[in-house]
Specification:
Number of strands: 0
Radius of gyration: 15 Å
Number of domains: 1
Largest sheet: none
Structural class: mainly alpha
Shape: globular
Distance between the termini: 31 Å
Order of helices and strands: HHHHHHH
Helix content: over 70%
Length: 177
Amino acid sequence: MSSPCDPQYAPAGDVSGAMMLVDSRLRAIYDGRTEVDPEQRKLDEQFTASLGPTGAQDLLDGVCTIIFMYMKWLRMACEDHDKDVIEYVVPNLVTSMGRMPRSVRPEAVPTMAGLVVAAGTGLSPSLWRQQYGEWTKEEMNALEATSFLLAEIINRITDDRDFATRLVTDALSSADR
């Protein structure tokens, strides 16, 4: 039986734009910058403001698509080692977000955990979230942090700082062909 949250019904969104934001956060952290550079934050805000309402929604859908792709990869990696992806990923994600109170408001953490569980069980994160109304401003940093943290988990597992980015860009390249 098909779910209304089945990924086949979800828009992919602006995956390229979303990947650009995730990759810039990864590079900043790998370069030793623990705080987001105010100039970079300003550029990101200008970029998202230039998108307009439709473009912003496309960017949100793109981030959700990336989260789905990361969780699918993590689910397959966990299954190869007889581990449960939810048990492996969600506690680490929630703990990491709890350590980021300036960036991630505590009330957004349960929503992000639910989003990751939805993706981990094969549901579209954007359609799952849509059931509960519009995205809130407070959830934006949490959504960005979720995509970044999942990418970081993948990069640590593979011992390759660019693996998560390549995972998405390779999928985009093959979709273009």
